[in-house]
Amino acid sequence: MSSAPRTPLMPLDEALSTLLQQITPSNGSELVATFDADGRVLAEDVVSSLQVPAFDNSSMDGYAVRCADLLPGAELSVTQRIPAGHQGQPLQAGQVARIFTGAPVPQGADAIVMQEQAELVADGDIPRVRFTHRPQVGEWIRQSGEDIRQGQTALRRGQKLGPAELGLAASLGLAQLRVVPRPRVALFSTGDELVMPGDVAPQDMPAGAIYNSNRFFLRALLHRLGCEVSDLGIVPDRRDATLAALKTAADHHDLILTSGGVSVGEEDHVKPAVQALGALALWQIAMKPGKPFAYGHVRRETQNGTAHFVGLPGNPVSSYMTFLLLVRPLILKLQGVENLVPECLQLPAHFELPKADKRREFLRARRNDQGGLDLFPNQSSGVLTSVVWGDGVIDNPSGKTIARGDVVNFWPFAGWLS
Amino acid sequence: MSSAPRTPLMPLDEALSTLLQQITPSNGSELVATFDADGRVLAEDVVSSLQVPAFDNSSMDGYAVRCADLLPGAELSVTQRIPAGHQGQPLQAGQVARIFTGAPVPQGADAIVMQEQAELVADGDIPRVRFTHRPQVGEWIRQSGEDIRQGQTALRRGQKLGPAELGLAASLGLAQLRVVPRPRVALFSTGDELVMPGDVAPQDMPAGAIYNSNRFFLRALLHRLGCEVSDLGIVPDRRDATLAALKTAADHHDLILTSGGVSVGEEDHVKPAVQALGALALWQIAMKPGKPFAYGHVRRETQNGTAHFVGLPGNPVSSYMTFLLLVRPLILKLQGVENLVPECLQLPAHFELPKADKRREFLRARRNDQGGLDLFPNQSSGVLTSVVWGDGVIDNPSGKTIARGDVVNFWPFAGWLS
User: B30-52+146-179 in CATH: which number?
Assistant: First the structure.
């Protein structure tokens, strides 16, 4: 029952770089349909095997013309019409072609005139038109290769694929993409006080019991990061149960993620269990919320190598923030993503924080209509109301108070979640 | 072959409000597991049936004490230990309880002292401790109901659920949530020039053919918005095929979404087909990229009512931007979401735009390390390279040039995609 010695606090940046040093990006890959690749990470560069556009084409509905023909008052013969997907005939002097958006520009034509700038002067088999505008050479023509040249690298290895990237890959004719396999993550919680929603009704909750909320947001966050999640449930606070859960998890996963059981208190069976099966470092990170954090590895029994182990604090907001700030970059690096940090904004505080904290604080806040930040009044780490209310966190250095109007660093949640 | 009359351009805001006036939020609902509710929209308020925390509990590993006992130099008896999930005994004068994070504060105790501020002075059956800190009443105690009170509305109808919202609902004991049904969207493209990636190799593409890229990003965007997507493929540029596709789509979907076939050119069979089966308005929106846009409805044959119809322009970037600016709010409103517009940032331009456009422009740009915006050099709407390169768009009013250093409105893509 002796008190634990005081552990010196580790700066968050040091914790992150120490963590990332342990992570080797996956060198595996798999082919997936481009249709199903949203959220995945490219395992190889995508080099274009064609010109985009493949041919000079019209970017308007109108008339393909020869600029030299368009003298003031000239009336020209419309000798052909070229819809998108159809090939026209070469254009002779004095001729124009009716043309539609996306259609190939016929040989001899050097500009497009919008249909709104054309007047029909004679109908019939060969209609005649006059133009109210004199185009410059190249007007409304999209040149072949203007967007992407053949041989150009259009998407890079390590790039995370979103809707636009899938569209770009499709425009190069790629029905499949070679991506990094989904990280396999085993998720479990520890704690005798935890009850799964649905198992016990609120009015029947025993004294001291709380609902397990961390598994819900951790699972959703992991899915958003493209992970395959095995949910091992709530592991009882016993050494044998914890050892068994860790062994099973290590064999089939890249990362074992737990919440709870990593503080310096002595009621935790996770720490000695991880130490028995591998190694574990317990950090006290100089951040608030989110001080206790554990990183280690667990040896695999049925194959070589180890699984990464991360123990998050049990308090929901601490767990949420340490996930975003430490586990998210870990998972991205596992997938070979290079850009691990989202964009940070500088915005004025529309509140006061008169009391500084020793630790670097991540204050839940949201943008107001005046372009400033409002602070959620209850910064307790016990429940996620502040995270639901806020649309991001202020990153406030240790020991710093905030006066109204001070410009502070703000991380929108959207940048971490999209 | 007469030229279409010049249609006056409609401001984007007018287009959006006209569109939204046509949309009645769904009044249906369904129960889904909280585990599976990420990205869904709440169909009813979530009212807490419990206090969070349910009981006063320790927010530290340490000792539960009676502040009045903590006179300087006092040595106190540790008569019990209370792990999380266990209920302690009432604390008598002169007694303290070893307590762990999350454990209920025993009756009689009025503060927690962190274990780092305790010194063990006598071990044995009843150890004795001395404290290096004199706590205030309530210190490190999370009060019952501090985060959420019983009867409080914790989440509102129309709220979009993300990881944090799921965690909050779970902490209230909710294993299921009542959400709005997924909008059912039928997606098709038109255009004889379109080829599906995989159907024809790049080297074998016929002259004038291009790969269909719009379906790929539209499908991914619709999925991110929680829609159920029926992909009806590429419909040939023929009236009969278009009519058949529309009839099938209307019967089973809330929204029919097409790309291509909505410009004022005469090669489109979508417009007359929609008009024959319902109604259609063709808009020329004063935005760049993305001018042509069609909104209408298609009558259902097998049941009452109509399906919404939206025709997006065929150019990929036009299609992408009109989706984000017009279709995304439409789909959110269908689900009863009230907050339809993401946050806009004000950032300095680190480039020049010497030539103004008549239309409101959405310029693809990205934030640089100096906190400014760089512009993608090729603002062509033909291919998605600019959207992939950029991390958002500058919303530049019509007729406005941009000088280096001008503060401009910037919409990060992340706010639209998360």
Answer: 3.90.105.10
Residues of chain A with CATH 3.40.980.10: 12-26+182-334
A154: which chain B residues are within 8 Å (Cβ-Cβ)?
A: 385
**Tens-digit pLDDT profile for residues A236-259:** 878 898 899 999 999 999 999 998
Topology of A30-47+155-179 in CATH? Answer: Molybdopterin biosynthesis moea protein, domain 2 (3.90.105)
- Calpha distance A400→A79 (Å, rounded): 76
**pLDDT value, residue B124:** 84
Q: How open is the CA angle B102-B103-B108, to the nearest 5 degrees?
A: 130
Tokens of residue A180, six digits: 């990094």
Domain A345-417 belongs in CATH node 1.10.490.110: no
Are β-strands B210-211 and B76-82 bridged in parallel, bridged antiparallel, or unpaired?
unpaired
Give the residue-averaged pLDDT of B189-201. 88
Q: What is the pLDDT of residue B267?
A: 59
Please answer yes or no on whether B413 and A413 come within 8 Å at the CB atom: no
Partner A contacted by B388 (CB < 8 A): yes
What residues 113-172 of chain A have any CB closer than 8 A to a CB of chain B?
115-116, 118-120, 123, 127, 142, 146-148, 154-155, 162-172
Q: Contact, A196 vs B175, CB < 8 A?
A: yes
In this structure, what token pair is assigned to residue B402? 């941009």
Rg for chain B, CA atoms, rounded: 31
Residue position matching structure tokens 């500084």: A356
Per the prediction, chain A carries an average pLDDT of 92
Q: Is residue B258 a contact partner of residue B311, using CB atoms and an 8 Å limit?
A: yes
Residues of chain B with CATH 2.170.190.11: 57-142
CATH superfamily entry for domain A57-142: Molybdopterin biosynthesis moea protein, domain 3. (2.170.190.11)
Interface contact B197-A371, CB threshold 8 A: no
Question: Which residue in B has a C-alpha nearest to residue A140's C-alpha?
Answer: B380
ipTM, two decimals: 0.88
Please say if the pLDDT value at position B142 is more than 50: yes
Write down the pTM of the prediction: 0.89
Q: Which two tokens stand for residue B214?
A: 């719009």
Q: Which fold is adopted by the domain B12-26+182-334?
A: Molybdenum Cofactor Biosythetic Enzyme; Chain A (3.40.980)
In whole angstroms, what separates CA B126 from the centre of its chain? Answer: 55
pLDDT digits (tens, 9 = 90+) for A109-160: 999 999 989 999 988 889 999 999 999 999 999 899 888 999 999 999 999 9
